Amino acid sequence: MNTKRNIVLRARGLHKIFESGGRMLEVLDNINMDVSRGELVAIMGASGVGKSTLLHILGALDQPTSGELNIIGKNVFEMSLDKQARFRNKHIGFVFQHHHLLPEFTALENVLFPARIAGKSDELYGRGKELLETVGLRERMSHRPDQLSGGECQRVAVVRAIIMSPDVVLADEPSGNLDTTNSESLHSLLRIMAEKDRQAFVIMTHDIKLAEQMDRCGYLEDGCVHF
Fold it and tell me: Where are the domains of the chain?
């Protein structure tokens, strides 16, 4: 059961309105949700319903029209943009639908990039190698993204998201480019990290098998998340 001290992400009254062709389009309408440490939460919904918009707001990559977001008790949208950027690097991990790896860096260097920004690349070097081995990329660590398959790039992106042991990991279709075997390996890794490091995961997905393995599954419909 969620208790106040265990809640790592709390959203209250999140609204997002876009202007389109002179009309106001409400994509998110009064989103309220709590996510606890070590909890895995899936959010499903039809394409275009606003899952990516919600993920960007929960990760402070976009501002809501109104509402409040607290992560580890901090009101993120009260911070300056510089403080938000530093906060994201330390406390939030991202896995996007497209992996966004740096083309000139190897798989291991991409994984260690957040640690490099924080001045911890040497400290986390061994952890990066271990995590890449866990997702089946032991022989691919020195390869650049153009030498990797789409599924391999996505696994690198997942490891990059968790390398800093962030409090919250936000993922957009993390298993979308993976075959069944690698999807199962990824799902196992997410569960291990949630249990071991008490990381919270919020995953936007169409993958029913993945959603069934989460602790909770919500549906985004008509701008609201229903659990």
Answer: 4-226
pLDDT in tens, 110-143: 999 999 988 999 999 999 999 999 888 999 999 9
Q: Which CATH architecture has domain 4-226?
A: 3-Layer(aba) Sandwich (3.40)
Specify the DSSP class assigned to residue 22.
T
pTM for the structure as a whole:
0.87
| Contact indicator for 161, 140 with CB cutoff of 8 Å | no
Q: What is the DSSP letter of 55?
A: H
∠ CA 69-101-159 to the nearest 5 degrees? 65
Contact assessment for residue 109 and residue 125, using Cβ atoms and an 8 Å cutoff: no
Question: DSSP secondary-structure letter at 93?
Answer: E
- The closest alpha carbon to 101, from 93, 89, 109, 90, belongs to 109
At 36, which helix (H) or strand (E)? Answer: strand 23-36
Output Rg (C-alpha) for the chain, integer angstroms: 17
Render pLDDT for 30-43 as a digit per residue (tens, 0 to 9): 999 999 999 999 99
Degrees, nearest 5: CA angle 168-9-107: 10
